[in-house]
Amino acid sequence: DVSGQVVLITGGGGGVGRQLALNFARLRARVVIWDINTDALQGTVEALEAEGYRCRAYLVDISERERVYEAAKKVKQEVGNVQVLINNAGIVACRTLWDLTDKAIESTGHIVTVGSVAGLLGTYGCTDYSATKFACVGFHEALFTELKTHGYDNIHMTLVCPYYINTGMFAGCKPRLLPMLEPKHVADSMVRSILKNEVNCTLPDHVRMFLPLKCLLPAKMCWELMYRVMKGPETMMGFRGRGKATAG
């Protein structure tokens, strides 16, 4: 039961973040959203108000550490302690590693961590994105282990790893295996996993069947399977994205 609890959602200005805000508001949680885009924040606030709910919105660029500290302090003072943190914000550049600046690489580092299938299986054109999502998976697994080892059983963690989501972030991409997921479906699935205290949530669930192949098959065979059979790299060839970073 999250009724009355403070739920902080980063990237809450659009897509899955907005759907999460709506879902938790309907569960009577006290919703707080962070985003880099003022118009997107206002859009989420208005969406909640249209259903009779309130939402506290903060303009925050989470790539700037000091801004994060300042916003966290304001939330604690103005709303209260956060009980559910959903690390949802993200961006995709679709550039190979050698096209990225050092700054771009460096700035891309109940607790809910939104990873990606790209954080379980390396993805063409997503060297920076996959790296940060693999980091999310490692962060989740390491912190989960530490919390359990030291007896913090009252702190729950959920790692969410979705397939491509139809939010505009992957505009132009043409997934070969499955259609893109819709934001509402992803948000609904995330809320169910959080309420059940599930440790891992992979969307769609059957994507997990590919993971053992990565460990059991020789690396070259995995590459041949990905490139020639699944045609994975072709998915990102038409990438347009949203251009300028907006709501995640």
At a glance:
It is built from eight helices and seven strands. It is α/β, with parallel strands linked by helices and 248 residues long. α1 (15-26) crosses α6 (183-195).
Task: Please tell me about this protein's structure.
With 248 residues, this protein is α/β, with parallel strands linked by helices. The chain has 2 domains: 6-86, Rossmann fold; 97-236, Rossmann fold (3-Layer(aba) Sandwich), CATH 3.40.50. Helix content is 39%, strand content 14%. The chain is built from 8 helices and 7 strands. It has helices spanning 15-26, 38-49, 65-78, 102-106, 127-149, 183-195, 211-216, 219-229, and strands spanning 6-10, 30-35, 55-59, 84-87, 111-114, 157-162, 200-203. The protein has a 7-stranded parallel beta sheet, sandwiched between helices. Mean pLDDT is 86; it is low at 105-109. InterPro entries: NAD(P)-bd_dom_sf (IPR036291), SDR_fam (IPR002347). It comes from Anopheles dirus. One of its GO terms (molecular function) is oxidoreductase activity, acting on the CH-OH group of donors, NAD or NADP as acceptor. This is Hydroxysteroid 17-beta dehydrogenase 11.
Named CATH topology of the largest domain: Rossmann fold
Spans of at least 5 consecutive residues whose pLDDT stays below 50 are 105-109
> How are the strands of the largest sheet arranged?
3-2-1-4-5-6-7
Could you say which overall geometry the principal axes of the C-alpha atoms support? globular
- Rg, nearest Å: 18 Å
Strand content: 5-15%
Instruction: Give the CA-CA distance, first to last residue.
Output: 26 Å
Mean pLDDT equals 86
Largest sheet: 7 strands, parallel
> Can you tell me the CATH superfamily of the largest domain?
NAD(P)-binding Rossmann-like Domain
Quaternary state reads single chain
